[in-house]
Specification:
heterotrimer; A alpha/beta (261); B mainly alpha (303); C mainly alpha (267); B: 303 residues; mainly alpha; MetI-like fold; 2 domains; C: 267 residues; two-stranded antiparallel ribbon; 2 strands; 78% helix; 1% strand; globular
Chain lengths: 261, 303, 267
């Protein structure tokens, strides 16, 4: 693998953002971040630290008040399929079938029906929902819906995936299974991923690198390289290295509260 | 005893929905019984008041119905089957008005109002819900426009357009458009918003975004508001006809003729009741149709 | 320090006023001032009166107390109708929402009134109660009752079962549950329906007064202005009705905002 001297896929320098309102809230301040090609980076931070704001800026829905954000060397100019974005809320289109959802990005790109079908067939197989191709989202479980959303952005083959706490609303077991599914999906189709979460274990399981954000106003507090070998499995969660890193990360996020008495 | 009562209570759904509480068949029976009770009570009141010119007996009402529908056809009437007659009925018959014709005319006006008013309201609501800028400019104007009852404008419109059909239809279109704006506005702004974000991240824009994302997402809210627009359309149509028309149900209700002359016709309550019941039936039918259409179009909605 | 929203609103409204003034000025010489009024011609009709003539007319109407008396009468009728109607409607709605048996019994009545266009009942009420206050107020009351009944019914039915379950497992009696859980939760929906009913009440009263026009009332003002015709009066009458509708609506909105202070605001 040639070391890429090219521009990082995602680059943020000195990014700041303030929400207007009766009491203006500074969501981000002086934040710098870099994501390289084919890296899986987890953005870890407490609730309200500005993770979603940052992701929205990367996705092109917000313009940073200060600083610059660049994708593959050029300024980010608005939303687009090159930066696939999966929201925190449920955004699977309920009026379309699963297959139609998957093919939507391709429809926007102008692909022919046969081409779209080929891609959606493959994705359905990958996530194991071939039986549900003609089902409406209301028939899917929350986890399945989210996987459809993730696959939906994968269909357009973007250079960057932005995932905002996709498994946040799921229970622990489902979440673990979804993490596995995502990991397998990623290994099958390597992409650059920026994954937001508040769950340290999730971050460790999925990512190559963890960036820890501070509380509001958000800025980079710490960074960890996750040197656990891939492919990762159920066993990985109990390996020594995993637990060691977990402790470090938890301490970095301030999970260890003030000492009693 | 107490334990059994307790057990029964915990089994019932708190929402006390009649549907789940009693099976459908028993509910229909109760509905019919209630209806019968309504008729019986009315008949009783009619008998007690004993003023057929104010509270007509059901028989009179039925006769009026028959007369109006049959246009006073001079058939040899079977025994005990008499034609209903009164000032109001005579005026109507003179004009050749039948119940079906009046209903048809009113329905036509309502449909016209919907066909023109709904797209208008949809357009404005879409614009306001989509662009914050447009909303800032248009919303205050809309609030002003909405505050003026369309029928209050009817005398003014008459000066411009005279006694024409347009003069009667404009208030209906106006009322429908105004009521269609808010549901569309909320549908686009509140409901569609997050789907639009997802769709734009998939590269959708322009027409694709509008037709495949915004409209379906806002659809249920819009369709729900449509039932209200329908009710308003009927009310405005009947009102306009009562004030300024020579045909239609409103006209039938005020006894035929323009409002300047209706004072000379003694109103016949039997005719009025026939008219009201027919209007209720027509309104119910159209509403049911709209409900079915909505259910059809929103099969994908969960819950 | 005005926000762009306020600025744009002012711009839009100012633009409207300017457009009208322009139209009135342009129309002065060009619009026909001879109108065919069904049976005869009428001279000297200003189809688009200038702001000046509107102001003059307005001053006259206010000074002669015509406008204020009309407003008082019409407002009183609407207010009374709203009071009576909402009292009856809310009560019945709460009952039918809470007790399913009553709901099924009342259903034919409610459905009938619900699908009858509000104004259609006017001739009937006139026959029963004669021309005058009673029939008008009752007409408004009937319509308001139907709307608020549906609102209250929906409000009660819409209370999430979880809250009732929680209350029950805390030992609350049926009555307490109704008072302290159902009523507060249903209140916003009820208020919203009252707001809608108020708007409809105004529409109803205007038409009722137009049909049964007698002094003093806003409908009569409009009818009279239409008979001459005297356009400035007509427009002022229409504007007054609009202003009153807006006022009632704003009041209802304020009430709603206060009553729902505990609710989470959706951005």
């Amino acid at each position: 693998m040639t070391a890429s001297a090219a521009a990082p896929v995602l680059e943020a320098v000195g990014v700041g953002y303030t929400y207007a309102g009766r009491t203006p809230t500074v969501a981000l301040e002086g934040l710098g971040l870099e994501v390289r090609d084919n890296e899986f980076v987890a953005l870890l931070g407490p609730v309200g630290c500005g993770k979603t704001t940052l992701l929205r800026i990367f996705a092109g829905f917000l313009r940073p008040a200060t600083g610059t954000v660049r994708c593959a060397g050029s300024d980010i100019d608005g939303p687009g399929w090159q930066r696939g974005y999966v929201l925190q809320e449920v955004a699977i289109f309920p009026w379309m079938t699963v297959r139609e959802n998957l093919e939507f990005g391709l429809l926007a790109k102008g692909l022919a029906p046969s081409e779209r079908r080929a891609v959606s067939d493959e994705l359905l197989g990958l996530i194991g929902l071939s039986a549900f191709e003609a089902a409406y989202p209301k028939e899917l479980s929350a986890g399945m819906s989210k996987m459809v959303e993730v696959s939906r952005v994968l269909a357009t083959d973007p250079s960057l995936l932005l995932l905002d706490e996709p498994f946040g609303a799921l229970d622990a077991q489902t979440r673990a299974r979804m993490q596995d599914a995502l990991a397998r999906l990623w290994e099958h189709r390597r992409k650059t991923v920026l994954f937001v979460t508040h769950d340290a274990e999730e971050a460790l399981y999925l990512a190559d690198r963890i960036v820890v954000l501070s509380e509001r106003p958000g800025r980079v507090r710490d960074e960890f390289a996750v040197d656990i070998p891939r492919p990762r499995s159920f066993e990985t969660r109990f390996s020594a290295r995993f637990l060691e890193l977990k402790r470090l990360v938890w301490e970095a996020t301030g999970a260890r509260g003030a000492p009693s008495t | 005893m107490a334990i059994r009562g307790e057990w029964r209570r915990t089994r019932k759904s708190w929402r006390r929905s009649a549907d789940r509480w009693w099976p459908i068949a028993r509910r229909s029976w109760l509905w019919l019984i209630s209806l019968a009770a309504l008729l019986a009570a009315y008949t009783l009141v009619a008998r007690v008041v004993a003023r057929p010119d104010i509270v007509p007996e059901p028989r009179d009402i039925a006769d009026a119905f028959r007369t109006l529908v049959g246009r006073g056809v001079q058939l040899a009437a079977p025994e005990g089957h008499h034609h209903h007659s009164s000032d109001q009925v005579e005026t109507l018959l003179m004009q050749g008005v039948t119940l079906q014709a009046a209903l048809a005319v009113s329905t036509a006006r309502v449909l016209f109002g919907l066909l023109v008013g709904v797209p208008l309201g949809l357009l404005v609501g879409l614009l306001m819900g989509w662009s914050r800028r447009a909303d800032d400019y248009l919303h205050p104007v809309f609030i002003l426009v909405r505050s003026v009852p369309p029928l209050a404008l009817i005398t003014y419109i008459m000066l411009w357009l005279g006694h024409s059909e347009a003069h009667r239809l404009i208030p209906i279109v106006y009322a429908v458009a105004v009521t269609a704006v808010i549901p569309t506005y909320h549908g686009v702004r509140d409901v569609a918003a997050k789907y639009v974000v997802a769709a734009r991240s998939l590269g959708a824009r322009g027409r694709l975004l509008l037709t495949r994302v915004v409209l379906p997402a806002a659809g249920p809210a819009v369709l729900g508001g449509l039932r209200y627009s329908l009710a308003i359309a009927w009310m405005t149509a009947v009102g306009a006809e009562m004030l300024m028309a020579e045909n239609g149900m409103g006209n039938l209700l005020v006894g035929g003729g323009m409002w300047s002359s209706r004072l000379q016709t003694r109103s016949d309550p039997a005719v009025i009741i026939v008219g009201i019941v027919s209007l209720a039936a027509a309104g119910w039918a159209m509403d049911a149709g709209l409900r079915m259409l909505t259910a059809r179009l929103t099969r994908w909605v969960s819950g | 320090m005005t926000s762009p929203r306020v600025r744009r609103a002012v711009v839009a409204l100012a633009a409207l006023a300017v457009l009208y003034a322009l139209a009135a000025e342009l129309g002065h010489g060009r619009l026909p001032d001879r109108i065919w009024l069904g049976a005869h011609y009428v001279e000297n009709v200003q189809l688009l009166p200038t702001f000046r003539s509107l102001a003059e007319e307005g001053t006259f109407l206010v000074e002669s107390r015509i406008l204020l008396d009309s407003i008082a009468v019409s407002t009183r009728r609407v207010f009374l109708g709203l009071l009576l109607g909402s009292a009856a409607g809310i009560l019945l709605g709460l009952l039918t929402g809470w007790a399913a048996r009553l709901e099924v019994l009342a259903d034919p009545w409610v459905t009938f009134f619900r699908f009858t266009p509000a104004l259609a009942l006017l001739p009937l009420y006139v026959v029963w109660f004669g021309y005058g206050e009673t029939s008008k107020v009752l007409l408004i009351a009937t319509n308001v009752a139907v709307i608020t009944l549906l609102g209250a019914h929906q409000g009660v039915r819409g209370v999430p079962a979880v809250y009732l379950d929680a209350a029950a497992s805390l030992g609350a009696s049926r009555w307490l549950r109704f008072r302290r859980v159902v009523l507060p939760m249903a209140f916003p929906t009820i208020l919203a329906s009252v707001r809608i009913a108020a708007g409809l009440a105004w529409v109803t009263i205007v038409v009722a007064e137009l049909i049964d026009a007698r002094m003093p009332s806003l409908g009569y003002l409009l009818a009279l202005a239409g008979a001459y015709p005297r356009v400035p009066t007509m427009l002022i009458g229409i504007a007054t009705v609009g202003a009153l509708v807006l006022l009632f609506d704003l009041l209802a909105l304020l009430l709603y905002a206060r009553a729902t202070r505990w609710m989470e605001r959706v951005a």
